[in-house]
Write a structure and sequence with these properties.
2 copies of one chain form a homodimer.
Chain A: H1 2-11, E1 20-25, E2 30-31, E3 36-40, H2 45-56, E4 60-65, E5 77-80, H3 84-94, E6 100-103, E7 110-112, E8 127-133, H4 137-144, E9 150-157, H5 161-171, E10 176-181, E11 193-194, E12 196-200, E13 205-207, E14 211-212, H6 213-229
Parallel strand pairs in A: 1-4, 1-6, 4-5, 6-9, 9-10
Antiparallel strand pairs in A: 2-3, 7-8, 10-12, 11-14, 12-13
Chain lengths: 231, 231
């Protein structure tokens, strides 16, 4: 009936209608040669869950994704990248129109100083590789942010995640940060659940229970929507 | 009809009935810390195709697999490993009963000298990492081989693959080697096709055309079955 349809529409919160949400997800790969590379255990599941839920909450969503084996959520614009350098370029290209930027990707901090175009031959004995820092995407986003943009970082840590997260939020001038202790039961990169704490710059600290990544994503986005309105 | 069933059975070659084939597949991951690791672009598709076709050709198949996102082929016993060290242990444990050993895995040659149990913190400026050689699985398999075992290596190269493959076959005392030029069109790690050359120690050199990995696998196994009978 018409009444039922209206009730259902009403019960479906869509607090992100009219908002453009830019999300990064997955790992990056930093090549040593055409065969070997340096990467991390990010599966992309957390970032993809945020993209899916943001679209469901009415946002227009752009997802900048490192190499993962996940399907693009319905209605999401996906841009594939490989290296930290690629991700840096893509985020800076896309950030202008974004109202919310959520950096869930696990971008490599270091990359090999030299990349060989042919496969490196093995040699006897040990090998020393030089690494250099990759560009700091969040820092650059913080510099270029315009009035009204809301920037959310992630901190996946094994030691004192909340303390480290607060420090990172200040250092990078974020509006909020999501910290997780990847050594905790049910948390971390590969599983379908996560245990996170949402911190914002006004001192809010919300520790979520163990939830599926989709439920974590939904709660995060509702917290972000509340914080957006509060500004 | 009965005649048709018999014809079909006859037309289905099963030259590997009664043979135990041990196959390695996929990359290995070598940890720097709980988050970061060193790996390579092997998808495991070639090794999995060999496992699937070997089972189809009647063999009893054991597949020692690095981290990949592929389903275990029907009837195949799969043993999952992460690092080169794990793969070394698994292959040595399993090799005794194998008639044919096919090393399709892209095992890391190097691993970080130190593995940190907590996530390494970023620091300013460059980073130097020390790497050490991993154990040479093929070399150890060559040492421990027993009479009648047939050992097949792979060489994925970007430069002069056939010349390098012949040299590797001799150095590691292999019965045969499959070489592919991963820089060639339609060859390499990620796709569903491959272009390979089969070399054996009697000087046979078979260059296959561009084929799906399943067709490459089937031809390889038929070549191996022929070489096995010839011994």
């Amino acid at each position: 009936t018409i009444v039922r349809v209206l009730e259902e529409q009403e019960s479906k919160e869509q607090p992100l209608v009219g908002k453009h949400v830019l999300i990064t997800a997955g790992p990056t790969q930093e090549s040593v040669d055409p065969v070997r590379f340096f990467t991390n255990h990010s599966s992309g599941k957390m970032g993809y869950a945020i993209a899916r839920q943001a679209a469901d909450l009415g946002a227009s969503v752009t997802l900048v994704s490192g190499p993962v084996s996940l399907d693009t959520p319905p209605g999401v614009k996906r841009i594939d990248v490989v290296s930290a350098e690629d991700m840096y370029e893509a985020v800076l290209n896309e950030m202008e129109s974004a109202d919310v930027i959520i950096k869930a990707a696990a971008v490599a901090d270091y990359r090999p100083k030299e990349t060989y175009s042919s496969k490196m031959k093995k040699q006897e004995g040990p090998l020393t590789l030089q690494f250099e820092r990759t560009k700091d995407i969040l820092k650059e986003v913080g510099k270029r942010r315009r009035e009204g943009q809301f920037i959310v970082g992630f901190a996946a840590e094994t030691d004192e995640p909340v303390r480290y997260g607060q420090e990172k939020m200040e250092r990078k001038r974020l509006d909020a940060i999501v910290v997780n202790d990847i050594s905790a039961e049910g948390a971390g990169f590969k599983g379908d659940t996560n245990v996170v704490t949402y911190l914002n710059r006004n001192g809010k600290q919300e520790a979520y229970p163990l939830l599926t990544k989709d439920d974590v994503a939904r709660r995060l986005l509702l917290s972000i929507a509340t914080d957006l309105k509060g500004e």
